[in-house]
Design a protein that fits this description.
Number of strands: 13
Strand content: 15-25%
Oligomer: single chain
Shape: globular
Structural class: alpha/beta
Order of helices and strands: EEEEEHHEHEHHHHEHEHEHEHEE
Helix content: 25-40%
Length: 359
């Protein structure tokens, strides 16, 4: 799998230690790409060069005499072909508080195995600066704010590459369709056929899941009107156990661009979010991911997991006990949403809290 990160890079180190605990030495907005593979229980990391080598260009079908190509194009082409061949959907995953590289890769692997998706992880230096407790939590919030520019650049580049690769793959379709419908009177039928052929050519969805403090990072990318996060890229966006203020969350949640739906999951008994609120004392406001009040974003679909089977006090109820049984309601919800499908058939609306519950 691939990982995009603004962590420091240590080429002389081995294994996952090649990606460090601090932001990139060239600045927190500097992005690097790495390929990760698990061998005999241990992760191996290959840091990709920023500018493609001749063998890398050849491997993804880029001519040697074309303009300079970068690692992002190499990764995009590999992922694009992989999800087409394996008939998978792409999940962009932004992790939360106090996650080192190994934890991020382990979780990404579980997501791939559980839900049959291809995962591209964005990893920011969320390690608490080596501290613990309140100091660690505050340090990670500072790192999240410092990483906003990096996530913004990542989303912009993803949108650009997705557009270019889709156009490249569909470049002959418009010619064929125009040849069949030569008059303006048939424009509606022409457009319908073009969409149908495009969906057959690229039959996959691109979805995003932000977990815990990863939502804090995503929130701040959306607050700028010039942000790349405002570009349309994702089908579903799933905000899981969001460690952000419930107060004023519609200001950014209603700005999330998506082709289908924005889901916000809530667990009132989420132990990690209850502790997160306590860490800062009275100044820490109720967290979006554990508070069943003031659910007022117009485009958000709030889903209450509080009484769902197996969830309990879990902070990561997309894995572990809640989804051990693939027939369980939590598993069905995450399988559908992370694969770009609608989950409405598995939900029932509770007008008392203005949120959905799992059937």
């Amino acid at each position: 799998m691939f990982i995009v990160t603004n962590r420091e890079v240590k080429p002389s180190a081995s294994g996952i230690k090649q990606l460090g605990l601090k932001p990139n030495s060239e600045g927190p907005n500097e992005l690097r790409l790495a390929e990760a593979e698990k061998d005999e229980g241990k992760w191996k990391i290959k840091i990709l060069p920023n500018i493609l080598t001749a063998p890398m260009r050849k491997a993804v079908g880029l001519p040697s005499d074309s303009e300079t190509a970068y690692a992002s194009e190499y990764v995009a082409r590999i992922i694009f072909e992989r999800i087409l061949q394996q008939k998978k959907n792409l999940l962009f995953f932004v992790h939360g508080y106090n996650n080192d590289v190994e934890a991020v890769l382990d979780r990404a692997q579980r997501l791939e195995e559980l839900y049959g998706v291809e995962v591209l992880s964005f990893s920011w230096p969320a390690n608490g600066g080596g501290a613990a407790g309140v100091a660690s939590y505050k340090s990670d919030k500072r790192d999240a704010r410092a990483s906003v520019g990096a996530l913004d650049r990542c989303l912009g580049r993803m949108a650009e590459l997705f557009r270019d690769l889709t156009l490249e793959r569909n470049k002959d379709l418009e010619v064929k369709v125009d040849a069949k419908f030569k008059t303006a009177a048939n424009s509606e039928r022409r457009d319908a056929l073009l969409v149908e052929l495009q969906e057959k050519t690229c039959p996959f969805t691109v979805n995003m899941m932000a977990h815990s403090m990863g939502n804090y990072l995503y929130e701040h990318t959306l607050l700028s009107v010039s942000s790349y996060a405002n570009l349309l890229l994702f089908d579903n966006v799933v905000l899981v156990a969001a460690d952000v203020n419930n107060l004023d969350h519609p200001k950014w949640v209603d700005r999330i661009p998506c082709r289908k739906s924005v889901f916000v999951t809530i667990n009132e008994n989420d132990q990690a979010l209850r502790l997160a609120r306590a860490k800062i004392g009275d100044d820490q406001l109720p967290r979006l991911g554990h508070y069943r009040h003031n659910l007022e974003a117009k485009q958000a679909i709030y889903v209450d997991f509080t009484e769902a089977p197996g969830v309990g006090s879990s902070h990561a109820y997309f894995e572990g006990e809640p989804v051990v049984n693939v027939a369980s309601a939590p598993y069905r919800f995450f399988y559908k949403t992370l694969n770009g499908q609608s989950a409405h058939d598995d939900l029932t609306f509770d007008s008392g809290i203005k949120a959905y519950r799992l059937k």
